[in-house]
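Troubleshooting: if your tokenizer reports a length mismatch, compare your output against this known-good record of 115 residues.
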Amino acid sequence: MLPKNQSLKLRARELRNNMTEEEKILWERIRKKRLKDIQFYRQFVIGNYIVDFYSHQASLVIELDGSGHFTKDTMEYDEVRDNYIRACGLKILRFRNSEVRDNIEGVIKVIYENM
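Known-good structure output:
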């Protein structure tokens, strides 16, 4: 079982209730076992982090990166976070928000190939 910081539970719920447009687009395509009959969860707590999408069955985390993810500080934070998530035995796929908006079929194909 993955470690989970219970104090992040309310924040995760807030994020689920306030998804970005790109998260909504992707969620509509992967929810309800629409890809390979695999269940995904959104805004899932892993350790001290909240990931955008997570599938236990596929051991997969999907992250969507908006413009705020490309500053030096945020990139360093993401690297530490990704290393932790990988150490939990999970694969991480990262997509820019623009990829989801402009090429959702390509994003779905990459996810499908990595499940």
